[in-house]
Amino acid sequence: MNETGESRRRAPWPLLLLIAVLVVLAAGFGVRSWRQHHQGPPDPDPVAIRPWFGPKTAAEAIVLADSQITGARERIERGQKDWLHLEILGDTLVGRYRLTGRWDDLAEADRTLTEALALAEYPAGPSLSRAALSNTLHRLPEVETTLARFDAQAAKPLPDEASSALALRGDVAMQRGDYAAARDLYGKAEAAANNAGLALRQSMLALRTGDPELARRRVNAVLRGKRLTRQALQTAALQRATIAYATGDWATAGRWVRWADAVFPGQWLAQAFVAQQAAVEGRADEAVHRYTDLANRSNAPEVMDALAHLLRLQGRRDASNVWAARAGTLWARRVAALPTAAYAHAAEHELAVGNPARALDLARKDAALRPHGATLALLARAQLLTGDAKAALATIERAEKGGWRSALLLMQKAEALDALGRDGEAQAARNAALAINPHAADPAARYVWFGHD
Fold first, then answer.
1. CA 236, 72, 163, 174 torsion-angle sign
2. Which of 25, 177, 208, 364 stands the most exposed, by the fewest C-beta atoms within 10 Å?
3. Cβ-based neighbour number of residue 21 at 10 Å
4. Is 315 domain-assigned?
5. For residues 20 and 22, what is the distance between their CA atoms, to the nearest angstrom?
6. DSSP state of 444
7. CA 64, CA 56: separation in Å to the nearest integer?
């Protein structure tokens, strides 16, 4: 009786143990399922990515662009100076700019598309090409005016045209700090006709509004896509690296930077990322060598600024000043030629290796036109370096209220709060920055010039 009773009391334990094991296994499966759902699949293997058609190197692409531009000019000179042929010339000039970074092409494209639009009878004309270039030049009212002309055309737009117009409106909303409107417009553009460029826009919006995982998944969808040129894949890979920099995953950044340079070799921006990655990984001398060679070949002031900044961090001020002066001359020319496009870049130059007071003036002008988070962060930095921590904090809080999220912004907030004697709040901001990017306070983070927050 007692033995039977004891057996009855003990009998459930093997069953309970089995149940416990099953619960643990189920919980583990649930966690893995949750992670897979929220994190998505891992990054694609770069080795498995297969480019589609198109030039294999930047040099080949530039030769092709040169030929197309020459042909377009010859047709115009032979008397075919109508808006359509001018649009072709303008678009090919913009295409070459994206390969070389040469602003002379942007300026000529600007003049060419302005003339093309003037030749066309309203509402016909190259309205989408003009709006896209105006967006690149940060002329937001001009984007809206030109898109209104596009909307007034009698013919129903093709799906990809409708998508492009909606995406450009999303870009305007993004730059004005209306991220909800940008998200909605990008969604409508996606419904009209999806493409890699739109996915990258949505990815950047997700990254800058606090969802780096969604940003990663959208870029990965592009990298896994079919029929993408090497240049398009390179752009996506550099954006994947940008996401990695924002979250402090420097190893992943390095992997995609090097692949971007290999898949479409010779493109100056990818080469700049490679030089930057060398500095981040502790090979500053290699970075200086790479930047110097690239600055001399490309004559890009962005590269000169990165080099001057790196040299200054190494204590090599005389060498830094040489490159800073050279870059400053080029930025002054660009501000004079295409001011709205140059304000932010020139402000970054002045903040890093120039005059903070000039940076403040440039940043204010840009923020008045495009009050989104990156521009406000730049303005806040200028306010900090000119001794106005109170104004800097107000600018940062404005960016936060709008929905901008980045480790850089939070580190600047901590700096402003420190200056105001609010130590506890400063530490909280610093902790929040480190939660986004564990390397946010690492000295090597200062080397991230391209693709920074």
1. positive
2. 25
3. 10
4. yes
5. 5
6. G
7. 11
Task: Report yes or no on 96 lying in a domain.
Answer: yes
Q: Are residues 148 and 285 in the same domain?
A: no
Kindly write down the DSSP assignment for every residue of 109-135, as one continuous string.
HHHHHHHHHHHSPTT-S-HHHHHHHHH
Q: Look at residues 308, 391, 311 and name the one whose alpha carbon lies nearest to residue 354.
A: 308
* Final residue before a domain boundary, out of 155, 179, 208: 155
Nearest to 342 by CA among 103, 110, 33, 178: 103
- Nearest CA to 303 out of 290, 312, 313 is that of 290
Residue 149 located in a structural domain? yes
CATH number at residue 390: 1.25.40.10
The number of folded domains in the chain is: 2
Residue 307 CB-density burial (10 A; 0-12 exposed, 13-18 middle, 19+ buried): buried
Question: Which of 155, 180, 195 lies at the terminal end of a domain, its last residue?
Answer: 155
d(CA 372, CA 73): 38
Q: What is the pLDDT along the chain (453 residues), one digit of tens a residue?
A: 333 333 333 333 333 333 333 333 333 333 333 334 456 799 999 999 999 989 999 999 999 999 999 999 999 999 999 999 999 999 999 999 999 999 999 999 999 999 999 999 999 999 999 999 999 999 999 999 999 999 999 999 999 999 999 999 999 999 999 999 999 999 999 999 999 999 999 999 999 999 999 999 999 999 999 899 999 999 999 999 999 999 999 999 999 999 999 999 999 999 999 999 999 999 999 999 999 999 999 999 999 999 999 999 999 999 999 999 999 999 999 999 999 999 999 999 999 999 999 999 999 999 999 999 999 999 999 999 999 999 999 999 999 999 999 999 999 999 999 999 999 999 999 999 999 999 999 999 999 999 999
CA atoms of 423 and 251, how far apart (whole Å): 33
Domain housing 301: 277-453
What is residue 281's DSSP assignment? Answer: T
Is residue 293 located within the same domain as residue 426? yes
Going from the C-alpha of 336 to that of each of 340, 346, 351, 363, 365, the distances in angstroms are 10, 11, 19, 16, 14
Which residue type occupies 186? Y
Whether 144 and 292 map to the same domain: the answer is no
Give pairs for 78-84: CB < 8 Å, separation 24+: 81/119, 82/119, 83/116, 83/117, 83/119, 83/120, 83/124, 83/125, 83/126, 84/116, 84/126
**Other C-beta atoms within 10 Å of 20: how many?**
10
CA 138 to chain centroid: 15
